[in-house]
Amino acid sequence: MEDLKKILMEHPFFKGLDEEYSSLIVGCASNIRADAGKMILREGEEANHFYLIRSGKVTLQLMTPNKGHVIIETLNEGDILGWSWLVPPYMWHFDAKASELTRMIALDGKCLRNKCENDHHLGYELLKRFADIMTKRLESTRLQLLDIYGDRS
Amino acid sequence: MKIFIFERPELDNLIAVLKRRGFKVIGPTVSDSAIIYDELTDGGSLPIGWTDEQSNAAYHLKRREDAAVFAWAVGPQSWKKFLFPPIQKLFATHRITKGLDLQNSKKQAPEESQPVKYAFFGVRSCELSAIAIQDKVFLSGPFVDPLYQRKRTGVFIVAINCGQAGGTCFCESMNTGPRAINGFDLALTEVLNDKRHYFIAEAGSVMGEDILKNIKCTKAAEEDLETVKNITEQTKAQIHRSIDTTDLKNILYQSPEHPRWERTAAICLTCANCTMVCPTCFCATVEDVTDLAGKQADRIRKWDSCFTLDFSYIHGGSVRTSAKSRYRQWMTHKLASWVDQFGTSGCVGCGRCITWCPVGIDITEEARAIRENQP
Amino acid sequence: MATAPDLQSLKVDYKRNPMLPWPFQIRRVKHETEDTFTVELQPQGDLEEFAFLPGQFNMIYVFGVGEIPISISGDPANSRTLVHTTRAVGSVTKAMDKMRRGDILGIRGPYGTPWPIEKAAGKDVVFVAGGIGLAPLRPALYEVVAHRERYGKVVLLYGTRTPTDVLFRQELEHWRARFDLEIYVTVDRAMSGWRGNVGVVTNLISRAPFDPRNTMAFVCGPEVMMRYTSMELHKRGVDNEHIFVSMERNMKCAIGLCGHCQFGSVFVCKDGPVFRYSQIKDMLVKWEI
Fold first, then answer.
1. pLDDT tens-digit readout, B291-330
2. pLDDT tens-place string over residues A6-50
3. For testing the chain C interface, which of A59, A71, A139 should be mutated: the one with the most C CBs within 10 Å?
4. Can you give the residue ranges of every domain in chain A?
5. Which chain C residues are within 8 Å of B99, Cβ to Cβ?
6. Which chain B residues are within 8 Å of C224, Cβ to Cβ?
7. Neighbours of chain A (3+ CB pairs under 8 A)
């Protein structure tokens, strides 16, 4: 448990959180492992967890009717997977699959969500951190959208 | 500098002498209601007794009451018409059995077979500066334009000091006139009064002196130099436009989003007239043309203008699509970038762009508006 | 210790007319990806070698069709074969795409400023390539690999559209197999079989193994990509003076006389195409310059 606490609190995402919350976070955390090919989350399912990737590689995918599974992003060591647990309707909008043996820390989003409803300060701290991730993802996605290589490269 | 005097009839002899020496004499002549530059048959081709009225988007020739030869200001053409022709074949390639004959020395550089020696007759001071500016562009970079070099070498220049200012010119503020200082073989000043019609000729080169020996002329006196000074000072006083060039480069560099550009772009037709009449504009494009059989391909160089939509085209689209960006490019290049590129302003104050702009945009007004409304 | 190259000594001598192309014969046309191909050329006539510096380009002339600037993409150590890689997007490149071994192309060059590789001696070297931008960087890669001991860490970050658009795949795999080169490839999107990275190339920068305080970065790709990449490199701590990009503009003469390639007050053909990022970064964000 101590080991988990250290890993979590030193991660850039959780850094700076008040001491009283760290035990709470750790209480919602567990080590998990996904073998290569394992689906970690599926589009349409309830989003109750989020993950901190400790090692390995996770692909975010979308199933399309004519092209099959299209990979839209790969996440690596140190990345956070999943934020839909924090915003309604609390549902995954894509699939995530471990493309190689991946070790992660899973955090009980449902539990944390309820705590946030009661403690708005905690909610604000978590939402702030997720806003940062979402912004970076949005910027990257927009660059991907531009399809720069097809046009004028 | 040696100074001489000759009477009016000798002007025609001067042309004849140059022709006899093998020069193709190019000078001003009236054509299509304007004074343009073309080959002079003899002194009779000159625009004797003509003057012009120029203003924003306006040019009119008017008959004078006297027989002054050079009492007018620059017209739509400049000497770049000859040194840097609007259309010029660069080379021709031929398909041969082994592929392509690109380096065939006999058929390349078509100009080489008939080298022409030009004499430019009647070059204004601003035009001398313009020629010097184009010399820098074409001859002083890492690559020399051999066609320009060939045409430029050996050009005999007879400059003319302006006896009156044009309606749109502003050479004084651009430091390019009205008096011709250097860059000529001969600089003439026309003097016409009730009693006499004569020319004061300053010899700017040994060849200039030499040519003068073939016409009837006498040595000038101190007061003749005074006359030149007085006439050109008088011309200066008639100039009513100007550009303040103090730190203009930086002002323009820091003004790409100045609101003035929008206002002017709304009026500008991007017709490219200004770039065609401007004596320093040098942009060109190339065209590859084949014959029907596909056996020969010529590459032709043509004048181009940064005002055209596809001037800045790179696969996908043009970089400068808006009229604003194109007007801004032209003016910023002319008055600012040129300084960093070639060491001087690109503008000589000849006023042609003001006269020949169909909507009368005045570069001196534009420069003033941008300078005066800095945030 | 590598010294700055002498550009003057490299110019093919066109004493008579720098507008006149020299004939080169096509020895091979290789199709790299769906829209990209490579031509390997040999000089004809009494020209036996063609020397150039990484980052330079030639004007390539197709009989009767036209002439366009294309970066040289071959190994500078091999001066007997001239290599160009390009996408077939316009009339000239499409005509080139249909040409075969034995056909003649006209070449003028080499022109332009090279990648200042000698400045990277003793430092980490980061190459960031986007799409076809890998082609003008490849000669620099060859040069660095050939003198590997001069540099610290050597990293290539390469982004392209999809896995089928990965250029020079075999070469990249060959380089990746070395222990002293770090090659990271990412694509904008992929089908589920792709084992590599998906995402924009800028995402690779924060994680790449180099010391930003002692790095030279060479960036080449679409202008948008170079803008974001340079900002990201700078965010990571690389000095703007140590980031170099390769610009592209319309060119008709490539010798500073036609005026088309002006970018602000610089001519891309003779003051570039390689520019220090600090010199042009303000112009990059201005519209329609």
1. 888 888 899 999 999 999 999 998 778 999 999 999 999 9
2. 888 888 888 888 888 888 888 889 999 999 999 999 988 899 999
3. A71
4. 2-151
5. 23, 25, 44, 102-104
6. none
7. B, C
- Are the C-beta atoms of B51 and B31 separated by less than 8 Å? no
H helix or E strand, kind and range, residue B207: helix B206-212
Neighbours of C162 (CB within 10 A): 19
Closest CA to C222 of C128, C92, C94: C128
Residue B103: its pLDDT value, please?
Answer: 56
C196 contact partners, CB below 8 Å, separation of at least 6: A74, C163, C185, C186, C187, C190
Question: What tens digit of pLDDT does each residue of A127-153 get?
Answer: 999 999 999 999 999 988 888 887 544
Q: Residue C127 forms beta bridges with which residues?
A: C156, C218
- pLDDT at residue B238, rounded to an integer: 97
pLDDT in tens, B123-171: 999 999 999 999 999 999 989 999 999 999 999 999 999 999 999 999 9
Alpha helices in chain C (DSSP H): 91-97, 134-146, 169-176, 223-236, 277-284
CA–CA dist B287, B90 (Å, integer):
10
Mutate to test the interface with A, among C185, C188, C227, C247 (most CBs of A within 10 A): C188
Q: How far is CA C272 from the centre of its chain?
A: 12
Put simply, whether C190 touches A (Cβ < 8 Å) is yes
pLDDT at A1 exceeding the cut of 70 = no
CB contact under 8 Å between A149 and C131, yes or no, is: yes
C231-257: pLDDT as tens digits: 999 999 999 999 999 999 999 999 999
Query: To which CATH superfamily is domain A2-151 assigned?
Result: Jelly Rolls (2.60.120.10)
ipTM: 0.93
> In the numeric block, which tokens belong to residue B103?
């380096």
- What residues in B contact C257, CB-CB < 8 Å? 137-138, 141, 143, 145, 282, 284
- Here the tokens at position B196 are 């006499």
Q: Is the pLDDT of residue B342 over 60?
A: yes
pLDDT, averaged across chain C: 92
Question: Which backbone phi and psi does B7 adopt, to 5 degrees?
Answer: -80, 165
Report yes or no: A68 at the C interface, CB cutoff 8 Å.
yes
Cα C215 from Cα C131, distance rounded (Å): 23
Instruction: Please judge whether A68 and C225 are an interchain contact, meaning their C-beta atoms are less than 8 angstroms apart.
Output: no
B190 vs A134, which has greater pLDDT?
B190
Q: Return the structure tokens found at C35.
A: 């829209």
Q: How far is C163 from chain A (nearest CA, A)?
A: 11
CA distance, residue A153 to nearest chain B CA (Å): 9
| Pairing status of strand B197-203 against strand C266-267 | unpaired
Query: What's the topology of domain C8-111?
Result: Elongation Factor Tu (Ef-tu); domain 3 (2.40.30)
- Distance CA(B346)–CA(C246), nearest Å, equals 28
* Topology, domain C117-246: Rossmann fold (3.40.50)
**Sheet-wide strand order for C82-87:** C66-71, C57-62, C104-111, C22-31, C36-43, C82-87
Q: Where are the domains of chain C?
A: 8-111, 117-246
Give residue-wise pLDDT tens across range B248-276: 999 999 999 999 999 999 999 999 999 99
What would you report as the CA-atom Rg of chain C, rounded to the nearest whole angstrom?
18
Q: Considering only residues 4 to 63 of chain A, which have any Cβ-Cβ distance to chain C shorter than 8 Å?
A: 59-61
Please report residues of B whose CB lies closer than 8 A to that of A149. none
CB contact under 8 A, C189 and A68: no
Contact residues, chain A, for B316 at CB < 8 Å: 151-152
A19-58 CB burial, b ≥16 within 10 A, e <16: eebeebbbbbbeeeebeeeeebbeeeeebbbbbbbbebbb
Contact with chain C for residue A150, Cβ under 8 A: yes
The full set of domain ranges for chain B reads 2-238, 248-372
